[in-house]
Amino acid sequence: MRFPLSFVFPWAIRVTIAGLMLATAGCDKDGGKASGGGRKARAVPVKVATATEEDLPVTQEAIGNVQAFRTVAVRSQVDGLIEAIHFREGQDVKEGDLLVTIDRRPLATQVQIARADLAQAEAEAAQAKAEAERYEELARQQVVSKEQYAQLLTRAEVTRAVVEVKKGALAAAELQLSYAEIRAPIPGRVGQRFLHEGALVKANDTQAAAVINQLEPVFVTFSVAESSLPKVRAALARGEAPVRAHGADGGGAIEGRLDFVDNAVDPATGMILLKAVFANKRHRLWPGQFVRVALELGVEKKAVLVPERAVTTGQGGARIFALTANGTVDFREVKTGLRSGGRVEILEGVKAGETVVTDGQLRLVPGAKVDVVGGGGE
Known about the structure:
conserved putative lor/sdh protein from methanococcus maripaludis s2 fold, Elongation Factor Tu (Ef-tu), domain 3
């Protein structure tokens, strides 16, 4: 009996596939090559570094803002017209340099009037004094009454007091006249000019003619965490709190010193404001500029240091994989401290001399076999 090919071939294919499956199963059973038969796990390639014990400089880094040592807005103290401007925008000035001249004619007139009033008062006072002295002898001889003599003495005292009043008025007028010349109250650099010749100014007007910023020295303000406050205060008390600022000019660090610690921690941020002073002789720091700041607070003796790459962060906090004697890794939760130069201080969890993984942690689990392929670098 013949069967169609369409009936024979499917059954042949099925028999062949079944035979292959049985052969594979037999091979796994007899040869011990199945996936569950105890195949060795491959070692994970990692890079490592050794935890070292060193004296670590305690450095607090932050972003600081440069502030002028003093800032003065140049304003007029009298009413009048600006007669002349004696500075250029961006000019360096010394204390006492003439900046602005106000029309002095109205003020000079007031001085002349005050002088005339003083002269009149002095003449009246001299006459009253002479009369009182002349009547003094007559009063002793009882030629004039005591009441008349007392009136003359009173007039002499009144005119003398009027003289003092007129002297004060003259001094005030002369002071007002001196305000016609506006001079630089501090050394520094003049900014943009806001008023020009012919402008009418008023005493203590809100509009300043210009602003002077003192650039030698300057302040740099920055903030650090409140946890650093004890070390900051201790360094400041010792007088050993140098500060380095790194500007954008690439000219290296600029040396300064800590000058001020604020009297309260900001409750919103947990930070405290500090202020350092820099001589700034070369004007490398400019008011309003942001700079990187490093505050040196002393030296941490015998600190255990590892590369920052060795420390990873998990749900429990900072952690490290350390090598064991049998070539596997041990999982450690650690407590970190200061950071400096790409390294981090380990306060708890790792001892000096132990080897830690710096690269390849993502493929590791506790107890995993590792293959060291290189050092951890810096």
